[in-house]
Amino acid sequence: MSDETALLIADVFEAAGALRRLGEETAAAEGLTQARWQVLSAVSEDPLTVPQAARRLGVSRQNIQRVANDLVALQFAAYAANPDHRGSPLLTLTPRGEEPLARVTARAENIHRTLFAAIPDEEVRATRASLRRLLAELDRHEGTAGKR
Length: 148
Description:
By secondary structure, the protein is mainly α.
C-alpha cells in the first residue's frame, strides 16, 4: 500500500468521525438520534425491510431492528405487510415521522451549505466520484455488488 493510500484511508475515517459527530449534534437539536434520522431517511421514499435498511446503511440488522422498534413506538414509523416476504415486514414512514425528518433534514441542509461554501462544486463532484469508485471496488472485493 502506498503512503498516499494509507493517508487517504486515515482521512476518510477522520472525516467519517467528524461527520458522525456533526450528524449527532444536528439530530439532537431536533430531538432525534443520528441513527433514528438515518433510518427515517432510508424509508422516507420507499418502505424497506429491516435487512434492506441495514444493508443500505451499512450496519447490522440487529441495530436497525432496535432503532426501527423505537421509531414504531414513537409512531414515527410503522410496520406494513410485505407481499414478497410474510416474515419480513416493511418499515414505512408515518405522517407523524415526516415532521421531525423534515426539520432535521432542513437543519442539515443549512449546515452543509455553510460547511461546503468554501469548496467548489466541481471538487465536491470529483471527490464523490472517487469515493463511488472506491465503494464499487469494495463491493467487488466483498462480493456484494448491488447490495448497497
